[in-house]
Amino acid sequence: MINSVNKMKKYDTIIIGAGPAGLTSGIYLARAKQSVLIIDQGTVGGQMIMTHKIANYPGVIDISGYELANNMKAQAKEFGCKIISGSKITGMDISGGIKSIEVDGEDNYSSDAVIIAAGGEPRSLGLESEKRLKGKGISYCATCDGDFFQDQDIVVVGGGNSALEEAVSLTKYARSVTIIHQFDHFQGFPHAIKEAAEHPKIKIILESVVEEFNGDENLNSVIIKNLKDGSLKEINASGAFIFIGYVPRTGPFKGIIALNQKDEIITDIEMRTNISGVFAAGDVISKRYRQVTTAVSDGTIAALSVLDFLNSKKQKIEYSLASEVS
Length: 326
Ligand SMILES: Cc1cc2nc3c(=O)[nH]c(=O)nc-3n(C[C@H](O)[C@H](O)[C@H](O)COP(=O)(O)OP(=O)(O)OC[C@H]3O[C@@H](n4cnc5c(N)ncnc54)[C@H](O)[C@@H]3O)c2cc1C
Description:
326 residues; alpha/beta; 2 domains; five-stranded parallel beta sheet; binds flavin-adenine dinucleotide
């Protein structure tokens, strides 16, 4: 419920999330002279700031995620976006013609359109040692970080298509890849299982789970537990890639926006959701590939769709006013 005591500040569009998708939408909309508010509950930049090097963003050679995020933020601000970060959305009513959002229980904002660009996060194992060594050998993105493990021994945790396919892709860099999976069989497609199983650089350990990641500054070994007999085994590894699923940050939108079975927002190709005036972009939507480039692309499409939506809304209002007058 929105606290209506405080006066609402009105924008053309409110964007939820200041990762690459949200910032790109903001850049396009503000450049088209729309008033834009971007709200982020964390730090501006989203997941990009978790990676020390982004080497696959076209036209930008070797930039840190932090720097790329700051460049996008500066560009959005330059065009006039208002950005508030570290602020929690405490209420929202986005179903009607005018959308309203309450932040930190006290500030109220309204808009004609909303873009949800709340992103997501890779599912983690939930181990304390995993948290400590994240970004120091532990990664959730082979495309992003595989290159850092040239000729090294690494492990991949998981047994679905992502784990199997990424394990094979990591053999381009690593000396050896050990797949650790909790069940006695994989859940991937037969061809993905075959390719991984037959690869000379890949070893497979089934019915085992990671008990602990070891290392002071960086990861240097992984303790795994055999689920059949409870025995522990230490594997030397300087890298560990975890592919056990992905969690979209759609909690606040459940029951409001149509989600798929994985809780990802369902959009059409123009990034429209099932609610008029509400669009979604980036990692939060239902799609196969999640990269900065794909987030930026979705953000662009969402912004252009919003412009189209706002134009037709304006035309309808003008038409009905003209009809009333005549
Ligand atoms: C470790 C790591 C390394 C990576 N390296 C690369 C790489 O090298 N190259 C590459 O292309 N991709 C890389 N990726 C993937 C890439 O970062 C993501 O695909 C991309 O950031 C997705 O952008 P997004 O804007 O959709 O979402 P996000 O980046 O997840 O941003 C979403 C933002 O929304 C905010 N938010 C969430 N919920 C709310 C809410 N309720 N209210 C307000 N704000 C909210 C979050 O705080 C966050 O800032 C990497 C990912 C990780 C985790």
